[in-house]
């Protein structure tokens, strides 16, 4: 991550996220992540493709989607039934469980999205929010469960729904040297260890003790009393999802106060970056 440890922490959470529960309309476990702040300089240096090529080596299933206007308008995103051949034609979102889907928004160029393109983006949003892919049988659609980890790479905030946005803060811009160094460290033994780590973390038996549930509930009530805007139920849910992933990434089977504090620190740092970027944008606008 070009010397950005916070981005590394969030990518780990993204990689080990997996659906572990479906309750009515709520799907728990997946962690779509938007890494923004990928400037044209980094894109030109091949940061997005090099990052994907690295993550591809670490995951069981992966797919890279360049979100150009042409691709959005022309690629078949959902499976469709062809009644003339009596076959179901596959779509891009018909992916195996625990697939890492890396979407590159930095490839977006000026152009108009057609009706098909807008529908495709809607289908991607449905997968990211609800982990369901609609199969088109022409006269009706059937929703099928999915389990897809989404990593969205963009310059500004993504147009796609996601659990969180992380603004990348690179310490340098030598993309080629950074990834060459990483590749030099990835011998077969290291690759095997990392792959086992990711697979094991997804299968970890995680629990939230009764005592911890009560402590978190009290903390939520206190935070709401201080500011309802800064601590919404949705925000608290996002923190709980992140806390589970941080705990599992550390090899913990239960959420501890130590892990919970670490999780809140990560989230505070992430939000500070977004606030700083917003202040910078406002200052630029006033200057203009």
UniProtKB/TrEMBL annotation:
GO CC, alphabetical: nucleus
Pfam families noted in UniProt: MCM_bind
UniProt entry tagged with the keyword Nucleotide-binding: no
GO biological process: DNA-templated DNA replication
Keywords annotated in UniProt: Nucleus
InterPro entries per the UniProt record, alphabetical: MCM_complex-bd
A molecular function GO annotation: chromatin binding
Disulfide bond keyword on record: no
Location within or outside the cell: Nucleus
Residues annotated as transmembrane: none
PANTHER family: MINI-CHROMOSOME MAINTENANCE COMPLEX-BINDING PROTEIN
Assigned protein family: Belongs to the MCMBP family.
Protein name in UniProt: Mini-chromosome maintenance complex-binding protein
Gene source species: Hirondellea gigas
Lineage of producing organism: Eukaryota, Metazoa, Ecdysozoa, Arthropoda, Crustacea
